[in-house]
Amino acid sequence: MLFMATESGVAMDMAPELLASGCRIVDLSADFRLREARIWEKWYGKPHGAADLLAEAVYGLAEWARGPLVKARLVANPGCYPTSVLLAMAPLARDGLLQDGLVINSLSGTSGGGRTPRTDMMFSENAGSARAYGTSGHRHLPEIEQGVRFFGASPAISFLPHLIPASRGIFSTIHLGRGDAALVHESLMGVYHNEPFIDVMPMGSQPATNMVLGSNMCRIAVHATPGGAVIVLSVIDNLLKGAAGQAVQNMNIMFGLQETSGLEAVALMP
Amino acid sequence: MLFMATESGVAMDMAPELLASGCRIVDLSADFRLREARIWEKWYGKPHGAADLLAEAVYGLAEWARGPLVKARLVANPGCYPTSVLLAMAPLARDGLLQDGLVINSLSGTSGGGRTPRTDMMFSENAGSARAYGTSGHRHLPEIEQGVRFFGASPAISFLPHLIPASRGIFSTIHLGRGDAALVHESLMGVYHNEPFIDVMPMGSQPATNMVLGSNMCRIAVHATPGGAVIVLSVIDNLLKGAAGQAVQNMNIMFGLQETSGLEAVALMP
Amino acid sequence: MLFMATESGVAMDMAPELLASGCRIVDLSADFRLREARIWEKWYGKPHGAADLLAEAVYGLAEWARGPLVKARLVANPGCYPTSVLLAMAPLARDGLLQDGLVINSLSGTSGGGRTPRTDMMFSENAGSARAYGTSGHRHLPEIEQGVRFFGASPAISFLPHLIPASRGIFSTIHLGRGDAALVHESLMGVYHNEPFIDVMPMGSQPATNMVLGSNMCRIAVHATPGGAVIVLSVIDNLLKGAAGQAVQNMNIMFGLQETSGLEAVALMP
Amino acid sequence: MLFMATESGVAMDMAPELLASGCRIVDLSADFRLREARIWEKWYGKPHGAADLLAEAVYGLAEWARGPLVKARLVANPGCYPTSVLLAMAPLARDGLLQDGLVINSLSGTSGGGRTPRTDMMFSENAGSARAYGTSGHRHLPEIEQGVRFFGASPAISFLPHLIPASRGIFSTIHLGRGDAALVHESLMGVYHNEPFIDVMPMGSQPATNMVLGSNMCRIAVHATPGGAVIVLSVIDNLLKGAAGQAVQNMNIMFGLQETSGLEAVALMP
Predict the structure, then answer these.
(1) Secondary structure of B145-214 in the HEC alphabet?
(2) Which chains touch A (3 or more CB pairs under 8 A)?
(3) Given CB atoms, is D270 within the 8 Å cutoff of chain A?
(4) Which chains border C (3 or more CB–CB pairs < 8 Å)?
(5) Which residues of A touch C111 (CB under 8 A)?
(6) Do B105 and A105 touch (CB under 8 A)?
(7) Chain B interface, mutation test: which of D122, D212, D268, D269, most B Cβ atoms within 10 Å?
(8) Which partner from A243, A261, B92, B244 sits 20 to 30 angstroms from C120, CA to CA?
(9) Does the beta-carbon distance from C158 to D207 stay under 8 Å?
(10) Does C173 contact D167 at a Cβ distance shorter than 8 Å?
């Protein structure tokens, strides 16, 4: 068992040998998240060094991959934004509740940017300030598109991530357009009502990222707007359910351990 | 000349007498922002006490109201979200560049909530956390709809405000759907290239709220997404261009003063 | 067993009856922290309603009260500032390393102020700002003085708490005056080297509050200044080691449970 | 006229030639702040390249250097911590109100660390956290010591700077030991009551850094503790009164301009 929490490129270099030696891998980088080498290479701007492994890699959105995970040798741990978005959209895609023209607006704490020092990630540059980024295209968009397609839908998606002055947490606001909020809520409840790490809140609830910080939880709320549109809100801790927490959850499933082992911390709030 | 920076209700009670005595009013509350008493009463949940003044009140989106402001007795200073949104959308509405199904996602610092103590506005509840609010309908939506209609468009609009852990600043992300970003940029540049308080940034620029904090500026950027959609970003300081700053700007216009008087502070960054 | 996490006054009203009915109490309020009713009444400004219980109450600075806690019926859980300060100063008081004229400067997150809404505790009032408070005398001063005396020293102490723009965490800077930093470090190491919740860091280490947030840890560092003075730094999470965490630790000791039960979460950083 | 806002070392290299060409310099670096080359070299760890200019350099604590500034060719703009501390202590040193064993505890926003990217200055590392630094000796200590000596006192000083999760602002807490708070307040009022940039607040006032952010103000408050000690609190914006603002003020004096020119912005609060 090996976690590979690396810059893109390292995992693909090391994976073949590690697998050959009997390791099972949960890769925290983006190397094996996209199934088509062509698309990976377009978004990551270089040749994929282990394209033959892409077909085998299991996309580790834990609640939706339990079967394949049991025998998986190579697991691609999902990105933080895709985790927050796909957990909310997978049931809707499956149940035919997604229309064309989805708009996803996500807010993230700064820890998603890693620890490599950069002037634009310094405290003084971000304190009290908000900004969008990835406006020319964020690498998590093809991952979201692939995921939604996997669940049976293929809407055009406009996705924009933003940085807010918080260290942790992702808040995704998914505008579904006109629709029936009750149906959307039922679809989510039907799938997730027994999940230990997903809380579909009562209709009209107000999630906040501090409700999940420090925990492996994803909390999802459904809202009907005065104009008849449906908005789905999804919050996670980007470093736990959006990264290391989900990796542990995947490992637990792979090895037949209790799925919640090591992941039972509640959120740290306030 | 009188600023009325009050809770909704006070201005409408006092305005008739004040106008009769010769005062000219810039009202910072929401009492005179909506032109139809019926709509005002629906959103504010009580009878309007001075409905006969609604037709006279000038909606003080300064750059677009200079003519009427000169003689105005009663000016409704726009709300903070509508200011950030309408400055970006007015030229596009006029130029026929708005399609149906607009999605507006706005982020605001907490100072927009005023100083009345509430547990949910305390430091500990908001530090490091983000949340949406007004999900069942925010009073700035009818103001945005009225404004866009005034400029000649009537798209369905989905608007959701969010609170982020900052004291000041509004960041509005306006998803226009598929379109021609260059045309959108041209439309904005054509109108605003000489405005002292509006900066239409070069195509693809990255505004942040700390670029405008402490100033009366609105900065607007246009982006084309990889999927062919157009996104417009607009940032203001909610307490200046979104409130007191615009009120002073309106007063300057009303009294024939230099429009920038008292408003020349640059942003405080970092 | 009962936790009483209440405003001052409630615990003293209810304690006699509860004890009579066989309850054992860990009181999170300040009602039983000071042993002398006279001093309590001076600082809290009202008569003490259960002064006869003061002699019995065990001051629950857990690492220093294990013996008495085993049989205690009534435990006064220490205040947040006194916990951070006394854990650092108890060994030094006992070993004769405290001189007169101690200066203690503490920084606290805003959660120490509770959840009662107050304008001066709102997000907008505290974001990006620092201030001192309790300048005319903070109720934790007599608690610190009593503790230091208990361990055998009675220096004059100047204590000033400050609020910083963080939700959690206490950072106490204790200026000991001229002295031998190595002796101070040895004194602390000698007592605490096996404690699960106290980390005496290597000489010259730099603690930060985010090293303990979400955990029951106290981390202590010793520094020698260029001028020959000694400074001791102590950090805790005010809501855990400074409140509920220490209460659980005390309960574990009272009932013969594993002292670390329920308290093994590591700090949430970043 | 030249501002030299540079890393230590650059100003001393360029100053001789610039002065020869007739420039007048306000140096924002630390190159000319200490009058003795020996002390400078000890704290900055390298030879001083223009030691012959040290005697000529005017230490630009503006309110105390107006005479020398008028003809000054080379002005050393004071450091941010020394400005906050010396403005409060200069009158007290002159009036014999400083005893031995001063303890100065200062809090600073992160912008004092400059914009060079460092992991320990990233947003995620500092959000919600406080820490001390410079524990082995901060370069502003000899500057404070030199200043206090200049005003006629030579107490032993223990100075410790801390970083708090704010972008701007310095909060200095100066523990004077036992004394007469009223005399201290009078001493400050006597000197500063007419100063445009120094506000000696009424006895017992509570300054906060957000009262000065964005302005060139220093606000000072005096407190008597229950134990009979005196504490002086001093707040400035480290980037204005603690750097560029004071540099402009010095320049105004040097050139016979209105001393407040360009410095009249009020604080940005909240």
Answers:
(1) HHHHHHCCCCCCEEEEEEECCCCCCEEEEEEEEECCHHHHHHHHHHHHCCCCCEEECCCCCCCEHHHCCC
(2) B, C, D
(3) no
(4) A, B, D
(5) 270
(6) yes
(7) D268
(8) B244
(9) no
(10) no
Residue A82 has pLDDT above 70, yes or no: yes
Q: Each residue of D122-132: pLDDT tens digit?
A: 999 999 999 99
In a 3-state reduction of DSSP, which class is residue B126?
Answer: helix
Q: What is the pLDDT of residues A98-145, one digit of tens each?
A: 999 899 999 999 999 889 999 999 999 999 999 999 998 999 999 999
Furthest-apart CA atoms within chain A: distance in Å: 58
Say how many C-beta atoms besides its own lie within 10 A of residue B73's C-beta. 16
Asked if A168 has any chain C CB less than 8 Å from its own CB, the reply is yes
Question: Within 13 A of A169's CA, how many CA atoms are on the CB side?
Answer: 28
CB-based contact, C115 to chain B, within 8 Å: yes
Low-confidence ranges of chain B (pLDDT < 70): 1, 4-7
Instruction: Establish if C166 touches chain B: CB-CB under 8 angstroms.
Output: yes
Residue with tokens 């306030």: A270
> Does residue A80 carry a catalytic annotation?
yes
Torsion of CA C225, C229, C230, C234, to 10 degrees: -70
SS3 sequence of D45-93: CCCCCCHHHCCCCEECCHHHCHHHHHHCCEEECCCHHHHHHHHHHHHHH
> Which tens digits make up the pLDDT trace of C102-131?
999 999 999 998 899 999 999 999 999 999
Close Cβ partners of B212 (under 8 Å, ≥ 6 residues apart): B169, B218, B219, B235, B236, B237, B240, B241, B267
- Length of chain C in terms of residues written: 270
Q: Measured between CB atoms, does B207 come within 8 Å of chain A?
A: yes
**CB contacts < 8 Å between A and B, how many?**
170
**pLDDT at residue D7, rounded to an integer:** 67
User: What amino acid occupies position D171?
Assistant: F
Query: How far, in Å, CA of A214 to CA of A220, rounded?
Result: 17
From the list C25, C28, C72, C80, the catalytic residue is C80
| Cα angle C158, C159, C163; round to 5 | 150
- Residue C102: CB atoms within 10 A of its CB come to 22
Task: Report the Cα A111 to chain-centroid distance in Å.
Answer: 15
Mean pLDDT of C29-49: 95
**Mapped to the 3 state alphabet, what secondary structure does A173-185 carry?**
EEEEEECCHHHHH
pLDDT of residue C269: 87
Contacts of A115 in chain D (CB under 8 A): 119, 122, 124-125
